[in-house]
Amino acid sequence: MHDLETRGHLLTEQANAGSENLDRLSSLELVDLFNWEDARTLLAIAHARESLAAAIDLTARALKKGGRLFYVGAGTSGRLGVLDAAECPPTFCTPPELVQGIIAGGAGALIRSSEELEDRAEDGENAIAHRQITELDVVLGITAGGTTPFVQGALQAAQSRGATTIFMACVPADQVSFSADVDIRLLVGPEILAGSTRLKAGTVTKMALNIISTSVMVKLGKVYGNRMVDVAITNNKLRDRAVRILNDLAGIEREQASDLLQRSNQSVKLALLMHWTGLDAEAGKRRLEDCQGQLRDAVLKHQKNSD
């Protein structure tokens, strides 16, 4: 843990030489400055490509074995983790327990500042115990400055339970070191507004979480080509998307697509398999289960069996 007095040297706390006259800029100059600085997020992602790929592989492997993914953070970092977790069920039809967000202060911290709660490592430890995290699970700790006690406490508790741990920070390892299975450093430099890590640090964190969660879902068979074939059809927009996926991939009209969705219990993936193989819904479900949810593998297996 790091004392408050030692944090001024952190990359996320330093003053940005390029924004020293921030309070004197015109609106257009402000926009241009933000745009220039935000370009650093793309470079940061590129430099972290290997650690991001390692996180994807470890997480996908764990989830295939029945594990869960937990994001842990405080303040902006915690909110971003909760957001990414909340978007997995509608996008990929995952159960809500598969990807979960843990934020210091609980649900109330999503809409009200509760940054003082990030200083309690024991709260992070308790959150891990409360969710009964095991060696099957993955815990990804998000902390822009790297020193958040809530996150470090949670990761250490997860490690003691044998879980896979991932550390994500926006400071270099020589400023804050932490031992984890994967160490992701997203180095975007000092913020335009010194210390305000909801800016570049928040943006690059959102980008990294997008990459990790989406790539993991690809490896879990939630995607065919670049289509979300496990989309949860919960409103008119998503129903229309499901029909359009069937239109495009199966080459059928809307009426036939709607009929397929009804016969497949609103599963785009199953509807496609039924259309391409002639299997009924029950046989198609068994085939997908045999292929761990991988639509492409299920189609190929049917073709081999038919030859």
**What kind of oligomer do you see?**
single chain
| DSSP helical segment count | 12
**What's the shape?**
globular
CATH class categorisation of the largest domain: Alpha Beta
Q: What CATH architecture label of the largest domain applies?
A: 3-Layer(aba) Sandwich
> Which stretches of 5+ consecutive residues score pLDDT under 50?
none
H-E string: HHHEHEHEHEEHHHHHH
The major β-sheet equals: 5 strands, parallel
Task: Characterize the structure shown.
- This protein has twelve helices and five strands.
- It has a five-stranded parallel β-sheet with strand order 2-1-3-4-5, with helices on both faces.
- Helix 4 links the parallel strand 1 and strand 2.
- The longest helix is centred in the last third of the chain and has 20 residues.
- The N and C termini lie far apart (63 Å).
- The model has no long low-confidence stretch (mean pLDDT 94).
Layout of helices and strands:
Blueprint: H1 27-38, H2 40-47, H3 49-64, E1 69-73, H4 75-92, E2 99-103, H5 121-130, E3 138-142, H6 149-160, E4 164-169, E5 182-185, H7 200-219, H8 236-250, H9 254-263, H10 268-277, H11 281-290, H12 295-306
Parallel strand pairs: 1-2, 1-3, 3-4, 4-5
Helix pairs in contact: 2-7, 3-7, 4-7, 5-6, 8-9, 8-10, 9-10, 10-11, 10-12
